[in-house]
Write a structure and sequence with these properties.
By secondary structure, the chain is an alpha/beta fold. The chain folds into two domains: 145 residues, Rossmann fold; 65 residues. 48% of the residues lie in helices and 16% in strands. It contains ten helices and eight strands. It has a six-stranded parallel sheet, with helices on both faces. Helix 8 links the parallel strand 6 and strand 7. The mean pLDDT is 96.
Length: 223
């Protein structure tokens, strides 16, 4: 029986469904500056690579320069800071999954491309009963996922070997991150992207629901 010692989760689209609040904040910013807004369906693909890329993808073609992107990142942060928990909720079954991991004395961590301050605030708000070993969002001096730098920092803090870690995420970036770091790649089909995308990006296995992943852990990995 395989024995894994730690599970690292992505945040947006994996632990918490944040898409409505992200969409509404970015659209409010765009609308306030008389720029075109986007349908919710577009934001499923705007997100995932970090806030700078979200802004770059949402802005008109002639405004994708670094100065404009940074300016709109600041505007988004101001709006999102006041509106991040209006519609956002943990996915059904996530709390049970986390509780099981904690009871099993497995290390639990978060590695997200969401800005670090929002990442920590959101995790502490929605999962106050879970003792995360590491909560790490994106910071300016560390490349975002799928670069392995953040994953290696988390791994060092956990004090584990890469082969003993499961990485759970909902996008191609997350699967690439797992591969770049040497983690087992677990695809979250319940998130923002498709099973096909996860499989193409190298997922070792995917699950339709958090409940299915929990059952897998109980029956296939840990007794």
């Amino acid at each position: 029986m395989l024995e894994y010692k730690a599970v690292i989760f992505d945040l947006d689209g994996t632990l918490v469904n944040t898409i409505n609040d992200i969409t509404n904040s970015m659209n409010r910013v765009l609308k306030s500056m008389n720029l075109p807004i986007h349908d919710l369906s577009k934001y499923y693909y705007f997100v995932g690579a970090g806030l700078k890329e979200l802004c770059r993808r949402a802005l008109p073609e002639e405004m994708k320069d670094e100065k404009s992107v940074l300016h709109y990142r600041d505007l988004f942060n101001q709006d999102y800071d006041q509106n991040w928990n209006i519609d956002s909720r943990p996915y059904e079954g996530i709390s049970d999954l986390l509780a099981y991991l904690q009871a099993s004395k497995k290390s639990i961590a978060v590695l997200s491309n969401k800005p670090d301050q929002f990442c920590k605030t959101m995790i502490n708000f929605y999962f106050s009963e879970i003792n995360f070993s590491v909560i790490r969002g994106n910071v300016d001096n560390i490349p975002p996922k799928p670069h392995p730098a953040g994953g290696k920092i988390v791994l060092e803090i956990l004090g584990q070997k890469a082969k003993d870690v499961l990485f759970v995420g909902d996008t191609n970036i997350d699967m690439q991150t797992a591969k770049n770091c040497g983690f087992k790649a677990i695809g979250a089909e319940w998130g923002f992207r498709t099973k096909e995308e996860l499989d193409r990006a190298g997922a070792d296995i995917t699950f339709k629901r958090p409940k299915d992943f929990l059952t897998y852990l109980q029956e296939k990995i840990w007794e």
